[in-house]
Amino acid sequence: MKLAAEKLTSVPADQIQGKIGEFSDLETVQAFKDLMNRLNCDNLDVRSNAPYFNADFRNQYLMNSRITGIDDTDLLILVGCNPKFENPVLNARIKKAVSVNGLEVVVIGSAPQLPYNYLHLGNSTETLKQLAEGTHPFSEKLKAADLPMVLVSSLALERSDAPALMNYINQLQKDTNLISEEDQWNGFNVLHSNVGKINALELGITSKNPADLPPAKVVYLLGADNFRHEEIPEDSFVIYQGHTGDEGAYYADLILPTSSYLEKQGTYVNTDGRPQQSRSCLSSPGFSQDDWMVIRALSEEVGTPLPYDTIEELRTRIAEMAPHLIKFDVIEGSGFEKLAHAPNGNSSLNGTPLVENVDNFYMTDAISRNSHIMARCTRELNPLKAFNFKKDVQTWLTH
């Protein structure tokens, strides 16, 4: 702890960069934000592959129609999204709506093998642009839909032209019922794959690009394992705080072991925007502690102790920042739908097609990558990996 404090206080504040991991709960993110702010640092989540989001309104990054909205919509447009791989439980609900309610599904992106009928409009972003401008042949069908719904993958918003992509998605509301105040309907939806990103956005934290900041001298990986390696300079000191041990631990100069989400209390906001509490069902191994406790202890070493000693006091601090986050199991809307989904005017698409977002369904995070069962599934059941293996063998035999 003394070494971590020494490194954090020995460099300029703008040369400290943090990365928030995919399992970070609200308490951890809030404590991390408070610690970094006390160091006069605002580089809380720095990564070049972060999805494009604004944190001004909740409905800019949540699933506004709710998961139950699948049962109400009559037209679902998937933009750069494969729910079979990104959220199989949601995909099962879509399948039920197709077979029971006659839901029509339209895909703009790669043509995945979905277990229901759908209309594929291609994988070009120009298709989305034409649909937004009303010049596409399918535009009339969209205008005639009673409660249309658009579902875009947060992974698709990691593209360099994500602002333009979101601009055209917001533009789809023109002359359609995507936003209907009469029916209390908001058809703009984002499908997340990272609960830590949602929790950060709920507390007003948006990602920064490393190219816009000075080179980092200290990198604080808050349970972050899915990052681009070139973002970590060779001469930087890397602090990894987390569990399981994956990419982040390999790059670390100092490791602070903490409890996983199964071993601690925590609050998480789901893709609908519903704050939910978790409780520990296992004991933490060794001397690992909850993330917020480690950050609180580190603040003592830094010389600026944080003003809470219990998780209840920390949740009071969260309530000061965002009161809706302690209304557990309640979804609080932000309103201002027309303003929140106003087109941003960015029209510079880069012309690259919308491709498959998930390369390996069985290994997407630090926990699944350390699972022997998931490794076997990857080896035997992953169709993409099996195809590549077959292709490699054929290439070898040919030569």
Could you walk me through the main structural features you see in this protein, from its secondary elements to its overall organization?
By secondary structure, the protein is α/β, with parallel strands linked by helices. It has three domains: 2-42 and 196-326, 3-Layer(aba) Sandwich (Rossmann fold); 64-191 and 335-340, Dimethylsulfoxide Reductase, domain 2; 366-398. Helix content is 33%, strand content 14%. It contains 15 helices and 13 strands. The strands form four sheets. Strands 4-3-2-5-8 form a five-stranded parallel beta sheet, covered by helices on one side. The chain has a four-stranded parallel beta sheet with strand order 1-9-10-11. Helix 9 links the parallel strand 10 (237-242) and strand 11. The model is unreliable at 389-393 (pLDDT under 50).
Number of helices: 15
What is the CATH topology of the largest domain? Rossmann fold
CA gyration radius, whole angstroms: 22 Å
Class from helix and strand fractions: alpha/beta
- The stretches of 5 or more residues where confidence is low (pLDDT under 50) are 389-393
Look at the structure and give the mean pLDDT: 91
